[in-house]
Structure formats: structure tokens, C-alpha cells
Task: inverse folding
């Protein structure tokens, strides 16, 4: 597969993610919230590990390590260890696409765009769960997660605006 085809398929996945975010499934059931958070965390960890291997950009690498550390802590706060669940099938497809990209600026951009899509999804999930979630622990995790997710979105958007990715 050539680079252009790969980038177009990533753009298609991002568009599909945008459509899915327009009508997100926002669980209020504690087990469903926990599973959704853990799956999203695994996606963030997997893509960030790839970024640590492939990217030479210190901003990308620093964000990737931050994301791995944070998602490991979120899993612990939810009473789990990272690696206990698999990402969703659509997230696995994005991970596989990232693995196929060369360690160049196109990789950095695809990583950042994927992180933005994932963080936007998590923001909607956590804001909803913080307000109407079915358990105290999950609501506490969601409440703490919201400002962190917003900060990450700001950092990622700034990377795109400044041409870092």
C-alpha cells in the first residue's frame, strides 16, 4: 500500500470517528464505563508506544510517554492493570495503520490526529459520566479526567497549529 492510500485510509477512519462522535454511546452503567475507559486507555498506550519507537520529534515523544503514564494510572484508579483488555476493533485498525507508517512527519501527524479523535471521544464520555454515572468511583475518575483530557486536547491542537505534527 502506498503512502497516499494509507493516509487517505487514515483520513477515512478519522471521518468515521467524527461521525461516531456525533452520536456517541455514553454508558451510565459502571461496568460499561470502566470497560470503555480501559479499552480507550489501551488504544492510547499502544499508539503511544509506537510513537516512542517511530517519532524523532521530542514533543511527540514527550506526549506519548505522558499518555502511557497517565493511562496506566487511570487503569489503576479503575481497579485494573493496563493490558487487561483489548482496544475496540476500530482502534486496532488505527494501531495497525500507524504501525505501517514510516517514521516521518506523516507518522507524527497521524499519531496526533488519532490522539485528538480519541481524546474528544473520552472527553464526551467522561463529562457525561461525571454528571450521571452509576457509581461513585467512576464519577470520581471521570471528574478528575475531564480537565486532564481538556489539557491534552489543547497540547495536541497546539502541535498541529505550530506544525510540530
Result:
Amino acid at each position: 500500500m502506498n503512502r497516499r492510500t494509507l493516509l487517505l485510509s487514515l483520513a477515512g477512519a478519522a471521518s468515521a470517528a467524527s461521525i461516531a462522535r456525533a452520536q456517541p454511546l455514553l454508558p451510565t452503567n459502571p461496568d460499561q464505563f470502566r470497560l470503555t475507559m480501559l479499552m480507550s486507555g489501551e488504544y492510547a498506550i499502544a499508539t503511544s508506544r509506537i510513537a516512542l519507537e517511530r517519532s524523532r520529534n521530542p514533543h511527540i515523544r514527550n506526549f506519548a510517554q505522558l499518555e502511557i503514564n497517565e493511562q496506566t494510572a487511570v487503569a489503576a484508579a479503575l481497579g485494573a492493570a493496563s493490558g487487561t483488555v483489548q482496544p475496540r476493533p476500530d482502534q486496532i485498525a488505527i494501531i495497525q495503520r500507524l504501525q505501517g507508517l514510516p517514521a516521518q512527519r506523516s507518522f507524527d501527524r497521524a499519531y496526533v490526529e488519532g490522539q485528538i479523535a480519541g481524546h474528544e471521544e473520552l472527553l464526551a464520555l467522561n463529562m457525561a459520566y461525571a454528571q450521571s454515572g452509576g457509581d461513585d468511583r467512576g464519577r470520581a475518575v471521570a471528574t478528575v479526567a475531564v480537565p486532564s483530557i481538556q489539557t491534552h486536547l489543547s497540547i495536541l491542537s497546539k502541535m498541529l497549529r505550530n506544525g510540530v505534527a
About this structure: Confidence is low (pLDDT under 50) at residues 1-24. Helices lie at 3-22, 30-54, 58-77, 89-100, 105-132, 136-161. The CA atoms of residues 123 and 145 lie 8 Å apart.
